[in-house]
Amino acid sequence: MTAYTNKNHNNGLCKLYFNKPLANVIVIGAQWGDEGKGKITDLLSRSADVVVRSQGGVNAGHTVVVAGQTFKLHLIPSGILYPETECIVGSGTVIDPQVLIEEIEQLKALNVSVDNLFISQTAHVTMPYHRSIDMASEERRGDYKIGTTGRGIGPTYADKSERTGIRVLDLMDSDLLKEKLEWTINYKNVILDKLYNLPPLDPAVVITEYLAYADYLRPHVVDSSLQIYQAVQAKKNILFEGAQGTLLDLDHGTYPYVTSSNPIAGGSCVGAGVGPTIIDRVIGVAKAYTTRVGEGPFPTELSEEVGEILGDRGAEFGTTTGRRRRCGWFDAVIGRYAVRINGLDCVAVTKLDVLDTLEEIKVCVAYEVDGETRHHFPSNAVDFASCKPVYKTLPGWQQDTTNCQKLEDLPAKALSYLKFLAELMEVPIAIVSLGPSRDQTIIVEDPIHGPKRALLDADGTPVVAGS
Ligand code: GDP
Ligand code: IMO
Ligand code: MG
User: Which sequence positions are flagged as catalytic?
Assistant: First the structure.
C-alpha cells in the first residue's frame, strides 16, 4: 500500500498520528442515494484492506459491474469482489438475515468467496413484524406516505431507539432469543392486530426460522468495532462505504422523506464504532444530474421529455425495488450542502455520459423563495418544498464520452460543465465516471493519496482536480 501521511501535526503530542502510513476513507452519497457509490467503492477497494458498511440495511442497492458481469449488493460491502479484502457489516446497520443469506448464496453461485465477510454482533436484526409494519404503516399514511422500500428499515431502527430491538448477539444465544422473541412477538401482535388489522405471528415459527439463520451466519459474526480498531492498529487501509445519501439522512436530510439512519460522513464513525480521528478522507459521490426514489420535494425534477431521456439513458430504476427513479437537473445547492454536512474533500461525479445527447443542460445554482434568492440549503422542510430552482443553462457536448480515458479526451463543453459543478460546489472533482464498468472512469487525481481538500486557482477558485 502506498505510504500516505495526512495528519501533518507539528505538535509532538500528536506523535501517534504523525507519519501514519495509511488512508482511511469514507465514501458517501451526496444526493438522494443511487449516485453510483457501489461502482466508486469497488474501484477504490483495489487499495483497501477493509471495507465497512456502517448504516442502512437491505434498502440499499449498490451495483458493481466487473467484466460485463453485474453484481447487485444490498448489505454486503462492495469490496467483496476482492477476495483479500475484509468486508465488515458494521454495528449501525440493520440486518435482514433472510435477504443477507440470499445475497451470500447468490455471490457463492457466481464463485465469489464470502470467507472474508464479517457481521457485527451488535447490529440490529429485521424481523417479519418490521416488514409488515413498514408496509402497513405506509398504506395507513395515504397521501403522507414516505415511499419506503418496504424492507422494514424504519421499524427496525425504531425498535433500536425504543430499546426493544433484537441484535445479532441475541440470535447467537438460542435461550436468550426464545425469551426475547416470545415477549416481543406477543407485544408486536397487539400492534399488528389492533392498529393494522393484520394476523398475529406465531412466536414458535419465527424462533425456529431465526435460529436457522443464526446457525448459517454464526461463522461470520464478530466484534466489529474491535476488528476495525485492530485493522487501524495494523495500519491497514479502511474504506467506509456509505449507503443512501446525504438528503436521506434522518437528521440532516429532507425529513420526513428520509431513511431512518445517518448516511452522512459522521454516521460512518458512529455506525462502525470508530473515532473521527482515524478518518483521513471523505469522498462524496454525486451524479451529473439528480435522481430521487420515493416521495418528497425535488426542486429540479423534470417531468417532461428531458426527464424521460435521463431516466432511459441512465437506466434509472431502483436496484432494490425496481421503482422508476424521478430525474432532474444537477442541483448545486444540494452539492454545496453535501460538502458542508459531510466535510467532503473531493467528489466523484458519475453518469456524465447520460447527458451526452442533450443540446443544452441546466444546473440549479440557487433557489428562489418568495422572490428572495437563497444560496444555502434550507433546514426547514416547508421552505424546501417551496424552493424554485434558479438555473444557469450550459451548452451540451452532444458527443459520446463513454470511451474517454483522461480529461483531455473529454469534449471541451463536458469539461466546462465539470468545472462549473466544481466551482459551484466549492470542491474538487477527483473522479469522473462515464459508464457502469470499472474501465469507464477517469481518475483525475488520486482521491486518497493526492492533495487534500480544495485545489485552488491562483485567485482562490476551486477547480476540477488536476485540470
Ligand atoms: P448506488 O446505490 O449509489 O451504489 O447506485 P446504484 O447502483 O443504485 O445506481 C447506480 C446505477 O448507475 C447502477 O446501475 C450503475 O451500474 C450505474 N452507473 C454507475 N456509474 C455510472 C456511469 O458513470 N454511467 C452510467 N451510464 N451508469 C453508471
Ligand atoms: P442506496 O444505498 C435511494 C429511500 C426510499 C424512501 C426513503 C425511506 O442504493 O443509495 P426506507 O426503506 O429506507 O425507510 O425508505 O429512502 N431510500 C433510497 N433511495 N437509494 C437508496 O439506497 C435508498 N435507501 C432508501 O426510496 O424514499
Ligand atoms: Mg442504489
Answer: 34, 62
Task: Assess whether the C-beta atom of 27 lies below 6 angstroms from ligand 2.
Answer: no
Q: For ligand 2, what atom is nearest to the CA of residue 61? A: 9
Provide the angle, in degrees to the nearest 10, between the axes of the packed helices 265-272 and 224-233. Answer: 110
Place 379 in a pLDDT band, splitting at 50, 70 and 90.
confident
Q: How many CB atoms lie within 10 A of CB 425?
A: 26
Cα–Cα–Cα angle for 29, 238, 1, nearest 5°? 120
pLDDT digits (tens, 9 = 90+) for 265-310: 999 999 999 999 999 999 999 999 999 999 999 999 998 888 899 9
74 lines ligand 2 (CB under 6 A): no
User: What spacing in Å lies between the alpha carbon of 118 and ligand 1's midpoint?
Assistant: 25
Using an 8 Å Cβ cutoff, are 232 and 274 in contact?
yes
- Cα separation, 260 vs 156, in Å, equals 9
Cell numbers 421552505: residue: 383
Q: Is 59 in the pocket of ligand 2 (CB under 6 A)?
A: yes
Q: In 195-303, which residue ranges form alpha helices assigned H by DSSP? A: 203-217, 224-233, 265-272
| Unique residue bearing C-alpha cell 480515458 | 405
Beta strands per DSSP E along 268-384: 281-287, 290-292, 326-328, 330-331, 346-350, 360-369, 372-374
Which residues lie with the beta carbon below 6 Å from any ligand 1 atom? 29, 33-39, 61-63, 65, 314-315, 319, 350-351, 353-354, 433-436
* pTM, to two decimals: 0.93
Ligand 2 binding pocket includes 297 (Cβ within 6 Å): no
Contact 246, 338 (CB under 8 A): yes
**Ligand 1, atom 6: closest residue by C-alpha:** 34
